[in-house]
Structure formats: structure tokens, C-alpha cells
Amino acid sequence: MIGLTLGRYFSARFLRMIMAVFLTIFGIVYIIDFVELLRRAGDQPGVSAGVIALLSLLRVPSASEQLMPFCVLCGTMAAFLDLTRKLELLVARAVGVSVWGFLVPPVLIAALIGIASVGLFNPISALMKHHADGLEAQIFGLNGKPGAGAGLWVRQNNVDGQAILKADKVDDGGALLTSVTAYVYDRAGNFEGEVQAQTATLLPGVWRLDHARILTPGEESLEAGVYLLATDLLAEQVVQGVIAPESVPFWELPTVRGQTETAGFDSTAYRLQFQTLLARPLLFIAMVLIAAAFSLRFFRFGGIAKMIGGGVGAGFVLYIATKVVGDLGSAGLLSAPVAAWSPAIVGGMLGALALLHQEDG
Length: 361
Hints:
Layout: H1 4-40, H2 49-66, H3 68-85, H4 88-94, H5 99-102, H6 104-140, E1 152-158, E2 161-171, E3 176-185, E4 191-203, E5 206-215, E6 222-230, H7 235-239, H8 253-262, H9 268-278, H10 280-293, H11 304-330, H12 336-360
Antiparallel strand pairs: 1-2, 2-3, 3-4, 4-5, 5-6
Helix pairs in contact: 1-2, 1-3, 1-6, 2-6, 3-10, 3-11, 6-10, 8-9, 9-12, 10-11, 10-12, 11-12
């Protein structure tokens, strides 16, 4: 096994290299996003470059979080290649440290980075993305598209049955909807009618639809100054329809999932996001094993470029597999735990198998 002193030395090298790769990618993503937002804001009056810079800074942590597995992969490969080039791994092998011994530091570093990214970085990036979504809506309109016709859809269950509300605009944290259409169903699921209103205000236990027009099948339309629609929703649950799971901090995901299910929404995306975050440390460890399988070849044997390309390609395939399996989980074809954990488990097993073949086979 690796000694404490050598273990600390290797750990520092791996940590520095992974952080260097992450900061580099963070800077590149920030510059690209800043330029793109400047282009989009060219026709928006009164939007300064400082506001765009702030918006981009709020958006980048969430985007960079998605690239963390690549940062671990590339940082680990770079650290292994540097240690191999300087013959430090050769010396470690000469004193009796096997590949499994000097894999302990990067595996521990990957696990710690994964835990920190879930428990600390994710809540911070989620809050920043939430603020970025609000700022982006103010600048570019709902969902970042001026005059977007899709609007906001809200489905609710209450004592009178079910109702689906469509609004062109949402304000006041979800308590005020503009240009509203409500499709009302009874408790048996039968369609009762359609209510069109200029605004809908969320009050305790009820929606107040002002200047409403009531359309009932087989009857003439009716005009009403105020139409009351019972509801169990809170303002936070209304805007939940436009908040992506990535904008919800890790520690709040179970609560948001429960509120979403209570309100009658599909909570699959939140369950999948929670399980994906739980599996992140294992995914990082799988990236370390894959990086080691492609990075421990001695320089004098040649083929370094091919080896690096193979490692990056293997990591990319694992990343794509994670996204594909995640999409299957979002569609309900796989359960959330299976969709979140299977790529990391399979990737880790394949990396370990490759190392066993190279080192012990």
C-alpha cells in the first residue's frame, strides 16, 4: 500500500490538476456564454454589458457543473501522464507500490470532490441559476424568449376536481398570471368548461380570475367580473412548472418533489436529479479508473497521443451513456435509481476490468 507521505504528495498533485482543468473550462464557458448573451441583448434597450456579465456569471456555475466528470477525467489523465513523464510512478513501482496503491489518492480525491460538488457547489450553483433565470426573464421575456407563445402551464387538483391553467406571463413569484385560460374538469375527469380571463391572482385557497369569460359546452358564453377557482397551490408551486430540476438545490430536492406530487405534477425529473447527484461521487471514481486505464503507459513505449485520445473517447462515451440513460429515466422507461446509478457502476467496473487486464493479466 502507498505510504502517508507519498499519498499526500500524489493527492495534492491530482487535486491541483483537476482544479486547473475545471477553472480553465469555467473560464472558457464564461467567455462563450458572455459573448452569446451580448449578441442576444443587442436589440434590448437599456441592457448594459455589466448586467450581461452578471447574468453570465450566474449561469456559468450550473453549466460547468455538468462538465465536472470531464474535468475529473482530463485532470486525472494529465496528472498520471505528468507523473509518468517524470518517472515518479516508475519509482513508486520500484519501491513496491502497485497500481492499486497509487490509485488510492486519486480515487479519494474524486470521491471528496464528488461529495463537495453535491453538498456545497450544487446548492450554490442552483441558487445562482435560479436568480439567473429570473434576471433572464426580465431581460429577454418568459423562458428567455420575447413574446414566447408557449407560456406557462399549471395543472392542479382540488376538492372540485382538476383544472389546467395556461398563462402568457407570470409575475409576483407565481401569484399573478396574465392572459389566463383555465380548463376545468369535475372530480370524475369530465370536462366542464373553459374560463378566459385577463388576470388571475392567487389568494389563500382560491384563484381570482378578473374580467372572466366562461365557455360551457352546449351553452352560450357568459361574462363575469370575477370568477373564483378553488386551488391548493402555493405561489412557489406555480412557478415550479418553469423551474428546471437543475435550479433546485440538492438539499431541497426531496421537499420540492413532495410538493410537486401533492400539487398533481409529475415529479420524475426531480427524483432523477436527486439520484443523479447521489451517484456523482461514484461517477467521478469511474472517470478516475477510466483515466488510469489509458494513462499508465510508459512514454518510451510510444503511442501517447493514441492513448490520450482513447481515454477522452472512453470518457465521452460514458458521459453520453449517462445522458441517454437519464433520458430513458425521464421518460419513465427506467426507474430513477437505475437510470442514475447504472452508468457509474458499469463505467467503474469496465475501468477496473481494464486495469486488471493491464496490470495483473
